[in-house]
Design brief:
single chain, 284 residues, mainly alpha, two-stranded antiparallel sheet, 2 strands, 72% helix
Length: 284
């Protein structure tokens, strides 16, 4: 039971980082960004390239990778998403195309082999008789800190107040002088940075290869549907539910059954409560 609690907490933390970024851009810009998973992959590959090829220390490599992915996210928003924002279908198609281009770029650059992102902590720790990798514990701790910092930023800063205003009524916010386009770019950068950080933290104990973007976007979509599109608290609660559900299924049956959990959760929520646990109006 203790092992399930620990492993489930780590999975939930990684899922929460992915889902919070995904739902943040929806809550503000009202777009579903299918390129979100590619930010996760680029973060992991960026840290791998900087440490293995350029021989950077891991911490500067991780910070540089997150910054570069955030800039890439801003570029995607300005070049591809912004001109198409009036059409949800067009945004879905263009962000899917971006994700596929990133996948092929990674494949051509690094090949199809699995890569190993170095861990910040290689040691193992024993908690209540359960051996836990230091990389997993670090991923849990950093995820909690980053999500908590994001909430404080949104609730207690001037820029955060602008993000809140845009999420509640973009047109009214524009009337009072809030630059919505600039806010959309900032939020896209934050969303991409969170996904990149999740990729770097999960890289040491999960597979890093060009198609790794697909599963995170499926998980993120399932979580935001269950928690409520645009609701950050809902995404966090749904991430906890999904992380622990998958862990229990893995221990009770097999790891091969875990991938169906997110699909079933999405289907059930769409049938029972399409608005999700918190619903759209519960954003932030």
């Amino acid at each position: 039971m203790l092992e399930i609690l620990i492993v489930g907490a780590v999975s939930s933390a990684i899922y929460a980082m992915l889902a919070v970024g995904f739902t943040l851009i929806f809550g503000v810009a009202r777009v579903l960004n299918l390129a979100h998973g590619s930010f996760y992959a680029l973060g992991a590959y960026g840290a791998y390239f900087l440490t293995s090829s350029l021989k950077w220390p891991l911490l500067p490599a991780a910070l540089a990778s997150i910054a570069l992915v955030a800039l890439f996210g801003v570029a995607v928003e300005r070049v591809f998403v912004r001109p198409m924002r009036s059409s949800q279908l067009a945004v879905l198609m263009i962000t899917l195309a971006v994700a596929l281009v990133v996948e092929q770029g990674l494949f051509l650059t690094f090949g199809s082999e699995y890569r190993n992102v170095p861990a910040f902590v290689d040691a193992k720790f024993t908690i209540g008789g359960v051996d836990v990798g230091g990389a997993r514990l670090l991923a849990l701790g950093v995820s909690v800190v980053l999500i908590g910092s994001l909430w404080l930023f949104i609730q207690h800063t001037r820029l955060g107040s602008a993000i809140l205003a845009i999420s509640q009524d973009a047109q009214a916010a524009q009337y009072v002088g809030i630059p919505s386009d600039r806010i959309f770019s900032v939020v896209m950068g934050i969303s991409a940075a969170l996904a990149a950080a999740a990729g770097i933290l999960a890289g040491p104990f999960l597979s890093v290869q060009p198609t790794m973007w697909l599963l995170p976007i499926v998980k993120a979509f399932a979580i935001v549907v269950v928690g409520g599109l645009g609701s950050i608290p809902g995404s966090i609660i749904a991430a906890l539910m999904l992380g622990y559900a998958e862990t229990i299924v893995a221990y009770a049956a097999s790891t091969s059954w875990t991938e169906i959990v997110s699909v079933l959760a999405t289907l059930l929520m769409l049938v029972v409560r399409p608005a999700g646990i918190f619903g759209r109006r519960a954003a932030f």
